Amino acid sequence: APAPALAAPSESAAPIRAAATPPRGSAAARPGPAGARSDGGRSTPRTQNPAALDGEAAMLREANRALTAGDADAALAQLRRHAQRYPDGVLAQDREALRVLATCAKGRADEAARLRDGFLKRWPTSVHAARVRAACGETSTP
User: I need a surface site. Which of 1, 71, 75, 103 has the fewest CB within 10 A?
Assistant: First the structure.
C-alpha cells in the first residue's frame, strides 16, 4: 500500500505567499545583516521571493504525488532536487517530513529512524511531528 503522504501544499500560491511575508513591524520584517536570524540559528532561513516559494511548493507537490502513488524512489529523487535547489527554503521542514515518510516507504527503517529523530530534534513542535513519529510504525522516540 502506498505510504501516507503529507497534505500537499495548496494548489493556490496565495496562502503560501501570505505565510512567507512577515507582518509589518515584526522583527523578521526589519532590515538586518544578510542572513541574520534572531532565533539563534535554530530554524531555516525564509525565502522572500514569491516565485521561489511557488517553485518550492510545486516541487514538494510533485514529491507528495509520487509518494501517494507508491513511487518512493521518485519522491526521494524530487526531494533531493528540492534540497539542492532550496537548501534553506521556506518549506524545508515539509521536505524533511516527506523524506522520513518516503524513506519508510522504501523499507529503510534504520535510516528513516535517524531522519525521524533528527527531524523531531530540529522541529519538536512541528505540525508534522505526529506523522513523522508514526513513520515506519513507530509511535515514540527514545
Answer: 1
